[in-house]
Design a protein that fits this description.
flat; MetI-like fold; about 300 residues; 2 domains; two-stranded antiparallel sheet
């Protein structure tokens, strides 16, 4: 199963690389046009020579195969925008985003799932959990981030307002922003799944055998209720890697979302292509991890 999924991920990555390359290649303008706009001294002959030097005078399909061969040989090229090797830029950005994502997703999953299970086990607590989930879903992430900066960085001075130099303290506000924004989905999925699992026939059988309510909830009901939550984790992992651009920009964190935005806006095709592919691979690996976790929890899937 794992070998087949890895082969599927490899084929999908190749297909996505072709689609991304073609879409970016069809965008108006190229790096040479930008160079001419930035330096009026460049002549038409200079532009033609530079296009030939970088292969931009070749058909788009030929350029794709040349780029793919270079990437497979370990040479994804240089970033025109940052004047650095593409791999040297993506590594730190991916590490920064995965650190932010790991803490934010972990807190959202644990807290959201706990609230959902509480709502299912204690119906009196359900309205409060639903209100909190609705609030988390309704509050815009950028507004929440600004409020956290105003309160904890400006008024109280407890935490840094942003950047990546403050160590773990610089992570607290962006992690809180992302975690609160994603808490609602886990609370609702966990509450719905847990409520359904508590009405399954084997739950009644466990009660008839005299099992305690805590054992019934966590040993019998929760593994089944966790399956949709794990699915949501796999989907969120990829979405947050590329979609945290607003949070990263707000807190001045150099992550993948901001890197992709800068590369596309700056027409840096080498950087944009590889960054988009990395996000796609992370998404697919997250989905594979979620499927393996589901199979471990629910023998019926196996």
């Amino acid at each position: 199963m794992i070998a087949a999924r890895l082969a599927q991920i490899a084929i999908t990555t190749v297909a996505l690389s072709f689609i991304f390359f073609m879409l970016i290649g069809l965008m108006p303008g190229d790096p040479i046009d930008l160079a001419i706009a930035g330096d009026p001294r460049l002549t038409a002959e200079d532009a033609a020579r530079l296009r030939a030097l970088h292969g931009l005078d070749q058909p788009l399909l030929s350029r794709y195969f040349a780029w793919a061969a270079a990437v497979l040989s370990g040479n994804p090229g240089f970033s025109r925008l940052f004047a650095q090797p593409v791999a040297a830029l993506i590594g730190p950005a991916l590490l920064s985003t995965l650190t932010l994502l790991g803490f934010a997703l972990g807190i959202a999953v644990v807290l959201g799932t706990a609230l959902g299970v509480l709502a299912a086990l204690r119906p009196r607590a359900a309205p409060a959990v639903q209100t909190l989930a609705l609030l988390a879903q309704s509050v815009p992430g950028f507004w929440l981030g600004i409020m956290l900066i105003v309160v904890f960085a400006v008024w109280l001075g407890w935490l840094p307002a942003g950047g990546a130099e403050g160590g773990w303290r610089a992570l607290i506000l962006p992690v809180a922003t992302l975690a609160f924004a994603n808490l609602a989905g886990y609370a609702r999925h966990a509450a719905s799944a847990m409520a359904g699992a508590l009405h399954d026939p084997w739950i009644r059988s466990a009660r008839a055998r005299g099992a305690s309510e805590s054992r019934i909830a966590w040993r019998h009901a929760f593994p089944n209720a966790a399956v949709p939550v794990i699915t949501l984790i796999g989907l969120d992992a990829g979405a947050l890697v590329s979609g945290a651009v607003i949070t990263e920009a707000l807190f001045a964190r150099p992550g993948m979302g901001k890197l992709i935005f800068d590369a596309i806006m700056g027409n840096d095709s080498n950087l944009a292509l590889l960054a988009l592919l990395v996000v796609a691979v992370v998404t697919m690996l997250g989905s594979l991890g979620a499927d393996l976790a589901q199979r471990a929890l629910d023998p019926r899937i196996r």
